[in-house]
Design goal:
- This protein is α/β, with parallel strands linked by helices.
- It is 41% helix and 23% strand.
- The protein has helices at 5-18, 26-51, 68-75, 87-99, 135-144, 162-172, 182-188, and strands at residues 58-62, 79-84, 105-108, 119-124, 145-156, 196-203, 207-214.
- A seven-stranded mixed beta sheet has the order 3-2-1-4-5-7-6.
- Helix 1 packs parallel to helix 4.
Amino acid sequence: MRREVKDYFEDIALDFDSYYESPRGISDKIINAWLRRPGLIKRLKVTLEVSNPHHGKRILDVGCGSGKFVVECAKRGAEVLGMDISREMIEIAKDFCVKNKVEVKLRIGDATKGLPGGFDVCVALGVFEYFENPKSILMNMFASTEKGGKIIFSVPSLFTFQTPLREVLLYHRNVKCYYYTKKRVLSLLADFTADTKKIEFYSYGPGLVVCVERE
C-alpha cells in the first residue's frame, strides 16, 4: 500500500530541505548535484519571476514545504501565507523565516479540503504530482484567488531523462508520482475555462511551471 502524502512529507522533511543545499549522504549529494537541485533552483526562479512578489501583493503558497518560496516573496515585500499538510515542514519553514528575518504567516492545512481566500497569487510547487487527480486542489486554488490574479503550479514532465531516475527513488520510498504532458495539464484545466484568461507554460528542466491568469 502506498503511503499517504502527509506521512511521506513528515518522514522526508529534513532531507527535503537539504536538497536546496547539500544532502548528508554521498550518494544523495551526487544525485542532488545533477538531478534535484538544478531543477529546484530553476523552478523557484521561474516562479518568482512569474508571480512577481512586491509590496501590497497577497500570495498563498500551498505546500510551502521548508519555506524557500515564502521567504523570497517576503523579502520582496509581499504579504505571504504558507500552508503545508506536514507539521514538520511548517516547523522547518518557521525556523527558515526566523533565520532570514522575515515575517510570514504559516499554518498546517489540507489543500484538498479548502483554502483561505482573497489572494492575488496562489502557488503550489511540487504538490500535484502526488495526487492521481489534483482537481480538488486546483478548484480550491481558483476559489482562493481574486479575479485577475494568478494560479501557479508545477508538474513533473513525463518525457525527461530525470523521470525514470525519480521513479526508482520514489519506488524505494513507496510513493506514487504522476507525470504530465502539456496535453494532460490542459485536460486538468478544462473545467476551469470560464475562469481562465490565459495559460502559460515554463520549462524548468525536469518539469513545467504552469501559470493560469484568472478572468
